[in-house]
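Title: Prediction job returns without error message
Component: structure pipeline
Severity: low
Priority: P3
Assignee: unassigned

Description:
Job completed but the reporter wants confirmation the result is attached to the right record. Sequence as submitted:
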Amino acid sequence: MRKNLSKFLKSEYIKNISVQLLGTGVAQIIPLLVMPVLSRIYLEEDFAKYTSFIALVSVLTVATGARYQYAIVLPKKNVDALNVFLVSIYYTIAYSLLLLFLAIIINCFFDGLFNLNKSIFLVPIFILLQGLWLSFLNLSVRQKKFKLNAISKITQTSSNAVSTIIFGLSSISIGLIFGKILGLLISVFFLFKRLPLKSYFLSKKTIKIISKRYIDFPKYNIIPSFFNAASTHAPVFFIGKYYSDLSLGYYGLAFMALAGPLSIISVSIKDVFYQRVSEIYNTNNFKKVFETYRQSAFMLLLISIPLTLFLFFSSEALFSFVFGDNWKISGTFTTILVFSFGIKLIVSPLSIIFNVVNKLKTLSLWQTLYLITTFSTLGISILYFNVNIIMFLKIYVVHEVIMYLYYFFLQYSAIKNLKTNNQ
């Protein structure tokens, strides 16, 4: 056991994770460092609008590229992977144009919907850039260019941080949104220059072949992923409608502070884990796929426990000191929310295993169940029991822990059955 652990820690897999952790860590530390500045130059209402914007685009992003960008890592041949990459780009552009058309309709007939007003036109721009970024990012993962991957994230967050401060000092209330978009634009351009392609065009026949070959990604993944994103951001929709803008602003800052550490670890490990298990899976070494999954889960558990406990005991004092006394309520929210982030830190990076072992139907069923139980639980809590914001968050967290424990069980069962059936 000790010999296997030592070998695992010295493996290329861990080295790649270390590169990702370092790069993503720096990338997420940058916004965390500027947040004390942002909390003093932006109002709670500005954070509320930014939180609403991010919730909306996070839900809409799930359909960008028709999810084909997540198939870039899978083909055995590089030429097939490049074709999948281009198909994802085409679908991203088409989807963004559709959203622009919808934004025009909303502006003309439903002004004020989502509490964004004219900012609704920033949604298709963000979706386009996010879709392009995800495609380039998965291509870099495919090519094992994890250092480039990490640098792109640092480029994005550093340019986002600088521009957001400049916009804030210029009294631009939606500067948080502008900064996010500018950071994405610069990062996309960075990857575009360093991942050159021989061609940017595919024949209709090739597009049709690729689309059909990986049809499971849009067929079984778009709607369930939409459900999953909607469920993840359900508190934003409920707080925005049934509680005050101040509460939404406090929740927004707490969410941003927690999302930083979560992204540092979750995204880093997910990218490397995806590439690694896909590579092993293509060699039909199913026992090793299971072993890599189990070791990764244990590693995430060891990371999650101390981080969760630290944030639980220190958040209120930390938020008051770092962001100012008027943000202490965000610290209170964090002491509650941290348990849901703790369980997600363990389970979410490993969920990509469903893509690898082609269990997208299982994934879609869980995501559908997650949506139904999230909205029904939160809706009943507010509409029938009229709970206050603190109790609302506690109910939300209990639900998250239960659902993600079940999510982990489904992952483990799928990978264990794969190992058993192919011994």
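Comment from assignee: result matches the submitted record. Residues 166 and 175 are 8 Å apart (CA to CA).
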